[in-house]
Amino acid sequence: GIRCPLQRSVKRRGATKLRAAEGTRAGAGRKKSMAAAAARKSVCVTGAGGFVASWLVKLLLSKGHYTVRGTVRDPGNAKNAHLKALEGAGERLELLSADLLNYDSIASAVAGCEGVFHVASPVPSGRSTNPEEEVIAPAVTGTLNVLKACYEAKVKRVVMVSSIAAVFNNPNWPKGKVFDEDSWSDEDLCRKGEVSKPMPLHLLNLILPRRLFSSV
């Protein structure tokens, strides 16, 4: 039962090799994890709490190779809880407070990002009494702030999400022709607020039979 010095030496060398192998595997795992994190592209989604933007954030996270920054008015607001519950959000989603009309906050949000999805836009809770001032002007200013910030940050690609309201209120557009990049809503109609008139009918039509609101 007495072990000779040679046996003890062999055992020690074996244990040392085992620890070295485990350390090598652990180091390789850490390097692989760090490489994967470094390979991820940072992208920013403005207005991340909105319906379209929320689905976009979900899609980007599901790809696995994007780190997403989402701008919202208040990251701590309960209405943004659905974003934090998305798969991968704990590791790859950061919610930032940003205001489209505050250039510095937008510049901070897009800094270091390779791509930006500009989805945010001012939406009045009811019918606007002054669409030029309440909707159009802040939307234009906000978009210009995003584009300027992206230019300064050398963002590689910007995707701007607009509204059908930008194209479909054109009384001179040929009936039956598909709306494309050549169609723009009539500016006078937009300024008068005429664009918002068909919206209740359009929205209700998505969920209710036409016969229930034919007089709307």
Automatic annotation (TrEMBL):
UniProt superkingdom: Eukaryota
From the Swiss-Prot or TrEMBL record, give the protein name: NAD-dependent epimerase/dehydratase domain-containing protein
Q: Name one Pfam family in it.
A: Epimerase
Traced from the root, the source organism's taxonomic lineage reads:
Eukaryota, Viridiplantae, Streptophyta, Embryophyta, Tracheophyta
Please verify whether the record's keywords include Ligase. no
Q: Which UniProt keywords apply?
A: Oxidoreductase
GO terms, molecular function: oxidoreductase activity, acting on the CH-OH group of donors, NAD or NADP as acceptor
UniProt organism field: Aegilops tauschii subsp. strangulata
Q: For the NAD-dependent epimerase/dehydratase domain, which residue ranges apply?
A: 43-170
InterPro entries given in the database record:
Epimerase_deHydtase (IPR001509), NAD(P)-bd_dom_sf (IPR036291), NAD(P)_dehydrat-like (IPR050425)
